[in-house]
Structure formats: C-alpha cells, structure tokens
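Students often ask why we bother encoding 3D structure as a string. The short answer is that it lets us treat folding as translation between two languages. Here is a chain of 175 residues written in the first language.
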Amino acid sequence: MKRIILIGYMGAGKTTIGKALSKRLGLMFYDLDWYIESRMHKTIAQIFADDGEEGFREMEYNMLHEVAEFENVIVSCGGGTPCFFDNMDYLNAQGETIYLQAAPEVLAKHLKMGKVVRPLIAGKTDEELLAYISESLEKREPYYSRAKHILNVDLLNTAEKIEESVDEVCRILNI
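And here it is in the second language, the structure alphabet:
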C-alpha cells in the first residue's frame, strides 16, 4: 500500500507533480481542494465566503481524514492543510510526505500565471502578493519542514523540469 502526500505553498506545483507522478506510477491522484469542492458541491471560494476560513479549515480537516485513508494514492494537499489542527502529524502517520519547497518569488510568479481564483490572494498587487507569500511562508515553514522529504521545485517551467522532479520523487521514495 502506498500513500504519497504532497504539501507546500499554493503555486508550488503540488497538482502538477501529483498528476505526473500518478501517471508514472499508475496510482490514483486526489487534489484535496478538488475533492472538497466535489463533495460539498461548492468552490473553495464559495466555502470561504459562506463559512469563513475557520469553517473551511474544519471541512478540510474532515475531508483530509477521508482522502488520506485511501490506499495506493497520491494526495495533493492545500497550502494551509499541514498548518492546522494535528494535520501534519496525521499526514506523516498516513504516508510519505513530501514538501515541495519554492522561493517566494517563484511562488508569486506561478500564482500570477495561474488561472484559478484563490481566496487568500484575490485582489493583491504584485508587491502585496510577494509580501503576503513571504510572510505566510515564514509562518508555515515550521509545519512544512516536518515532512519526511523535501524537494526544491524552484524550476518547474518546462515539461522536462516536471519530469526531473517526478524522477527525484521516485528516487527519494525508492520506487
């Protein structure tokens, strides 16, 4: 039984690497945010608007405990998932956790290019976005760094770089 759990800040490439890894290993891939949206029949933005961040985090906690019980899966967690409740301890107990680590400038660039609306950064200028990421990352790093493995993903700008990262995950996990 395999459970590979990808954590890291939004825009780090958890979904991108998770999908590529899923294809390579023939394992099911679950993006926790997508799973929540599917189960709740609401977007993450709608959940934030209706229930606030606290309500979302409670829902996320419950859905995490469903997804992380699945067998032979790759799970991509939301950026804040490891930082609430006992989630990081739980994730480490459930499988191989990998922190996809990237510099704030790289994350800001990825998020500016992204098409997905993210409630926590909506409406921020480029400068505000970089400051927000830097501040958030500093607070989240103590949680992220508790992952069993850390992979730097500063360069995920080509298909080749994505494949190299997938190769590195396979090497780290001996698979």
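Translate back mentally: Residues 44-67 form the longest helix (24 residues). Keep this in mind for the problem set.
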